[in-house]
Design goal:
6 helices; six-stranded mixed β-sheet; globular
Length: about 400
């Protein structure tokens, strides 16, 4: 399932902003538009509006076990265990996955949302209580239509953010109880959280409860040479595993395939540049990726093809220690995480991790490794959240 999801977002947000606007010549007189119908808000006290909530069986109570495969072919099982008494919370907004037929997705929980939670969020249950609202996101259907020069009508580009805001306010009012919280998003989800932080958190009292914000597959703006003052006024980029109240933001590209000129990620806007914080080395430099790759995402094309020759894998994830490293690159091509693969002679593992966005078999280099942003850094991020949690609680957080 996940192999076939075109998980997109920063572009989706830009397109969504104009999705309901008619494409008319600039010189044409503006026609009187009918007053839009009032937005119907979701009731986030209803459990069915949440993908994940603590204390129930749902999209987040899924098997996260992994098969560890060494270069020599030794295989071992890493068993996952969630912490039902985790002292902090995580609030997640998922990326563009909906194949619903309209501009905005319905609130029905479908396999696409469940699949992306498996890959991107459930593992954080080892460190925090998990909250993930459904929201009426800008759909893949509408995005693909726009990319083909078509216009879909009937949607409301403000609906997705309104849902995220409503869910956040409901969480704060009835679930948070003063606990520290980590915000986590990817792609369109990162865009939603960027808006939420800028409008509702940055510089306000609630900012004191934000342990960190993890914004994957996005282009957060910061001043050149600085770490605050672009997208956010006071929330800085993270520079260590024990820094709290900070932001981790990045987009991944292959080290030998940097962002092209038309890249969707890694590019600045005017006087600002794209933020790059490397979860494998927040202090700078290169670090080993503690990746959790979906078994079905084998670049060789099959559930048992992470090795040569194929060896059976029975867990939903594989770990390939020593195969990949990551480093932030700052330069003319943009500011991004460069991922390097280190398969050596004799390494029985497939020397790659896939992750490229392809259309008709052609790699769209402007997307980088967008499909596996979360997989590549998952182990590093879970570790960081644990370290940040300890620091936050030691400082007096609840």
């Amino acid at each position: 399932m996940l192999r076939h999801l075109l998980i997109v977002g920063a572009a989706a947000l830009g397109l969504a902003a104009g999705a309901a606007q008619a494409q008319t010549p600039a010189s044409a007189p503006a026609a009187a538009a009918p007053a839009p119908a009032p937005m119907v808000h979701n009731d986030y006290t209803n459990p069915s509006t949440w993908l994940c909530r603590p204390g129930r069986d749902d999209a987040c109570t899924v098997n996260q076990d992994a098969t560890v495969i060494t270069a020599e072919g030794k295989m071992s099982k890493e068993t996952f265990k969630a912490d039902p008494n985790a002292p902090i919370d995580c609030f997640y907004v998922y990326p563009t996955v909906s194949h619903d037929p309209g501009v905005n997705a319905t609130m029905a929980i479908e396999p696409e949302e469940q699949s992306v939670v498996l890959a991107q969020f459930a593992r954080f249950g080892a460190k925090c209580r998990l909250y993930a609202p459904m929201y009426r996101q800008f759909t893949l259907t509408a995005l693909q239509a726009r990319m083909q020069g078509k216009t879909m009508t009937g949607g409301d580009p403000a609906m997705a953010y309104a849902d995220v805001l409503d869910a956040w306010n409901e969480y704060l009012a009835h679930d948070n109880h003063g606990r520290g919280v980590v915000l986590i998003g990817h792609s369109q989800g990162s865009g939603m959280l960027t808006q939420l932080i800028a409008k509702e958190i940055d510089g306000k009292p609630i900012q004191g409860r934000i342990i960190s914000a993890i914004l994957m597959g996005t282009t957060l703006q910061v001043p050149k040479g600085g770490d605050v003052g672009g997208s956010f006024k006071s929330m800085r980029l993270c520079h260590s595993n024990t820094q709290t109240g900070c932001v981790i933001a990045f987009a991944d590209f292959r080290a030998d395939s940097p962002p092209p000129a038309k890249s969707l990620f890694g590019k600045g806007r005017g006087d600002t540049v794209a933020a790059c914080t490397n979860p494998a080395a927040l202090g700078g430099g290169s670090g080993a990726l503690n990746a959790y790759m979906n078994t079905e995402l084998s670049p060789a094309g099959g559930a048992s093809n992470w090795t040569k020759p194929p060896m059976p894998v029975t867990t939903p994830f594989v770990k390939l220690p020593g195969l990949m490293t990551a480093a932030c690159v700052f330069g003319a091509d943009g500011d991004y995480i460069a991922v390097s693969f280190h398969g050596a002679p004799g390494d029985i593992r497939v020397g790659d991790a896939g992750g490229d966005v392809k259309v008709g078999g052609v790699i769209l280099k402007e997307w980088g490794l967008h499909l596996i942003d979360a997989n590549l850094h998952m182990g590093n991020l879970v570790h960081i959240v644990g370290e940040e949690s300890r620091t936050y609680l030691a400082k007096g957080g609840q």
